[in-house]
Amino acid sequence: MDQFVGGTADEHKRTQQSRVQTDSGNHVPTYHWKGAYHALPEGFQWKRIGAHQAFELWMHGSAEHGYPPFKEVTRSDFSSGGAKKRLSDLKYLMKRIQEHAESKGIWVEDPSYEQVKRIYMQCEEYLLGEYKLPGVKRGSDERFSQISWQTVVKNMRKRAKTRNGENSASEHDSS
Predict the structure, then answer these.
(1) Is residue 5 part of a domain?
(2) DSSP of 6-57, one letter per residue?
(3) What is the pLDDT of residues 69-109, one digit of tens each?
(4) How many distinct structural domains can be found in the chain?
(5) Per residue in 118-173, pLDDT tens?
């Protein structure tokens, strides 16, 4: 899971770490910085990963790094504004995946690792369609799995903005 998350060994050493017990009995590491406990170490940096890995990180976190599922992480767990913005982007993408999975009747509230893979694979075609921008040609050898989730979000937001602009314009035309 090393490819999922950021932070260097030095950052981890500089950050005081302790463990707290959750309701489920699992021991989740917490990091103490700026006078408070956080789910992530100070200076956490997002790494370039695909949408599939981002979905896995959202649902299950990183056992290797001791990070909780990112669906449980809050803005206060990040020390930089840029990292907080990426969390907002991740929430946007995960909401779209969940909505699509629910519409197909395949959403599972607390999925196993295998279920996470199945849910994602059944939503990937939808994401690919949302990712592609009209009029933008892509190389035939570019694989969707190699595109970072941040790029997918950027294009999805552009597409949504274009759709909203078209809807707004058609409402004005019909008046």
Answers:
(1) no
(2) ---HHHHHHSEEEEEE-TTS-EEEEEEETTEEESS-TT------BHHHHHHH
(3) 999 999 999 999 999 999 999 999 999 999 999 999 999 99
(4) 1
(5) 999 999 999 988 887 665 555 544 577 788 999 999 999 998 888 777 655 555 55
Nearest to 1 by CA among 44, 54, 51, 80: 54
Q: How far apart are CA 150 and CA 70, in angstroms?
A: 15
Q: What is the strand order of the sheet 36-38 is part of?
A: 16-21, 27-33, 36-38
Degrees, nearest 5: CA angle 159-93-116: 135
Q: Which residue has the tokens 């893979």?
A: 117
Domain with 96 in it: 48-173
In a domain, 115, yes or no: yes
Picking from 22, 156, 159, the residue whose alpha carbon sits closest to that of residue 90 is 156
